[in-house]
Each structure stands twice: as C-alpha cells, then as structure tokens.
Amino acid sequence: MSNKPRNNNNGKLKHHRNEGSDDVEGNPDVWSTLDKSFKQVQTVLDRNRALIQQVNENHRSKIADNMVKNVALIQELNGNISKVVSLYSDMSSTFSSAFHKQHSNGHTRDD
Q1: 26 forms bridges with which residues in the sheet?
Q2: Interatomic CA distance for residues 13 and 95, integer angstroms
Q3: What pTM does this model have?
Q4: Which of 21, 34, 102, 110 qualifies as a cystine partner to 26, CB 3.0-4.6 A?
C-alpha cells in the first residue's frame, strides 16, 4: 500500500499507509490534532456564512436599526477571520513540528 492519499469511491481523500510506517503521515496524534483543528475552522466558517447572510438581509432592509446591528455583525466577522488565520497557523506549526521531529529522529520516507 502507498503512503499517499487516494480517492475513495465518494471522491474524498482517504489516507493509506505502509504497515510499520512511523512517519508524520502515519502519526495518529498529528492527524487527530489536524482533524480537530479543521473541524474548528469549519465551525467558524459556518458561523461566518450565517453572519454574512444576516448582514446582507439587514443591508437590503434599509432599516436604520438593522444597519446599526451590522456594525456588531461585521466586527464579529473580522474577529472570526482572525480566529481562522490563527487556527491555520497553529495547524501549520503542529504539522511542521511533527514532521521535523520525525525526520530529526532518523525516520525518512525511504526507511
């Protein structure tokens, strides 16, 4: 079996690894952390989608009170964008650290 992700029948990537492989691709802790982070990102992005829809509805209504509400909604959107950036930065660091740790311990793809 290959260490490369493959498409399964539903078009999603499915991870395959060699038996005995201990590289980053086969490290369940790394993948668990990344999976948790991707779920957090998706939750924030889903919230942003709802916020954007509400901002658009408020804007189309042209009601002064709704326009005022948009200020807080847009501020929340901006904060959420910062959260997503932070989550992706953390994921990058997690993956990079695990990769460098495995390779500094002498594990390579050719082992």
Answers
A1: none
A2: 18
A3: 0.67
A4: 21
